[in-house]
Amino acid sequence: AGAFENGGTAALSGNTLTLNNVTPGDKAEVEIKIVNTSTVKTAYRVVIRNQGDGKLPFNVTGEAASWVELAPSTNPSENVKVGVELPTTVGDDYQGKSYALKIAIEAVQANGVASVDSAEALTAAVKESKTVVMTNDIELTEMFDITESPKIDLGGHTLTLPAASAVADGASVEFSNGTLAYAENSDKNLLEVVGGSLTVDNVDFDLKDATNLSRVPFMVTGGVLNIKNVDVESNRYYAVTTNNAQSDAAYTINIEDSTLTASNTELDNDTVLSNCSYLSRLNIKHSTIKGQRQAVFVRTGVATIEDSRLISTGEYLNVEKNVTTN
């Protein structure tokens, strides 16, 4: 907390760090007291994520930005220092704006964290339901079978998924802190939720060129999808859809502190489409949803939209046949 060299400020209130009038190269540092009451060896880290509309491309500095081990019932000898720094390479697009960042402490049993640097190591760790931290980019040629409940920390790297969907069926799966990418020429959905739950938190997406506009980043046919701190620019008909679900499917979609956009060459899209079941739930909070035709389309079920922006650019009507038939 304090003032930046160029006049901006950083203010800490609770676990929220608010940055005002940031400029490239600005850095804010906070001290956190860690109290460890665990009777087993523990690993912890400090996680800082964007909160609300707008995504600041910051770097997190300090030892606790990565997993740190603690002996049973032992506290760090000093308060943990962690910093937030805006890279000098981002240009002036973020200057003069304000951003709210949420600070959290994550802790797990020390032997529950696995660092992986290959597809084989990632697949093995996922089967053991460990917290997985990637140490470099990984490309899967075959999708792993998720039957347990792993947390996959991308570690700022890119995980490229094969030409088959990542299906969370009866498990609880989380991807965070990095980039998920389509394999080249994939004509499949990127992530499907058919049961259990899937969470993406602080994740970017490399969607490549669309070979099939109906294949989307998120397909939900059951279970729970949680989207947090995510900026998705889908070049397909949808960013999130339930189009293939059965009419009586029960699913929940939660979108929070995120920006979802659909934009394709046909100028026709519904960025978020929930259209299958009266049992469905769609919850959007502190987010922006933008489309060329429709931002959000809810045919049935219950939708709750709070403190969010829904934007239709109207580009759909730039196509003459759309004006005459709709």
What does this protein structure show overall?
By secondary structure, the chain is mainly β. 5% of the residues lie in helices and 46% in strands. It has two helices and 30 strands. Strands 10, 11, 12, 13, 14, 16, 18, 20, 23, 26 and 29 form an eleven-stranded parallel sheet that branches. The longest helix is centred in the middle third of the chain and has 9 residues, at 119-127. It is globular and about 70 Å long. The termini are far apart.
Number of strands: 30
User: Approximately how much helix is present in the residues?
Assistant: under 10%
Number of helices: 2
- Provide the gyration radius in Å: 21 Å
Strand percent estimate: over 45%
The structural class is mainly beta
What composes the largest sheet? 11 strands, parallel
Q: What's the shape?
A: globular
Stretches where pLDDT is under 50 for at least 5 consecutive residues are none
The N- and C-terminal alpha carbons lie at a distance of: 54 Å
What is the arithmetic mean of pLDDT?
82
SSE order and pairing:
Layout: E1 2-3, E2 9-13, E3 16-20, E4 27-32, E5 42-51, E6 59-61, E7 68-70, E8 80-85, E9 98-109, E10 113-116, H1 119-127, E11 131-134, E12 138-139, E13 151-153, E14 158-161, E15 166-168, E16 172-182, E17 191-193, E18 197-206, E19 218-220, E20 223-228, E21 231-234, E22 240-241, E23 251-256, E24 259-262, E25 270-274, E26 281-285, E27 288-291, E28 294-298, E29 302-306, E30 309-312, H2 320-325
Parallel strand pairs: 10-11, 11-13, 12-14, 13-16, 14-16, 15-17, 16-18, 17-19, 18-20, 19-22, 20-23, 21-24, 22-25, 23-26, 24-27, 25-28, 26-29, 27-30
Antiparallel strand pairs: 1-2, 2-3, 3-9, 4-8, 5-7, 5-9, 6-8
